[in-house]
Design brief:
globular, alpha/beta, 41% helix, nine-stranded mixed β-sheet, 26% strand, single chain
Length: 239
Amino acid sequence: MADKRPVAVFDVDGTIVRSSLVIEMTHELIRRGIFPQEAEQKFIDERDAWLNRRGHYDDYVNKIVDVYTTYLVGQEVSKIQEVADKVAKDQAHKTYRYTKDLVAKLKDSHFLLAISGSGIDSVQSFVKIHGFDLAYGSEIASKDGLYTNQTLVYGAREKGKTLDRIVDEHNLTLESSIGVGDTENDISFLEMVDQPIVFNPNSELLETAKNRGWKVVVERKDVVYELDIGDNGKHTLIS
């Protein structure tokens, strides 16, 4: 029997792509008139609060998700997929260099898995461009070619359970596995892999990484650092 292939699991938004696919999808759908202009007014306060450092990014994203799922009801699946393909193409190279290079490095040795809270349509289109083997994201039910108001899968929830299921279904192994994430939503899969990498973390994930001794990498402009978040506060320039 052939050796099982190790898995490398990546979050997508803020980890590979610099933006968020659900944010880009929502803006594009409004721009095209598929979502009404009034949709923007429902998240503008959260967006402005975040931009002015008076609010949290999570509040902004969560509001965007609410708006996206609300106005998705009744839309044609084929039309949304067309927009998803366009957004994925637009964002394909708006990526972080560290994680993009890591994905390319692991293609031959690992099963590449993406787990994201963004919609599965845009996630699949995006990671396909980068050679992933499988993508997992939020999924809304459809009937007669139109989206309903039933959410089948919340991609940001229980990522560890998702990873465990995928490993079993695809006959993979967690030995020599790698995981990369940027928020506390990713802790459940980061604690499962052999090599957890905390990339551009928010404060909650950074605190967890500090307590557990996980590798922390920060990319700023054209410089990538590996941080030592112990008492000595050292950093190593990666590239």
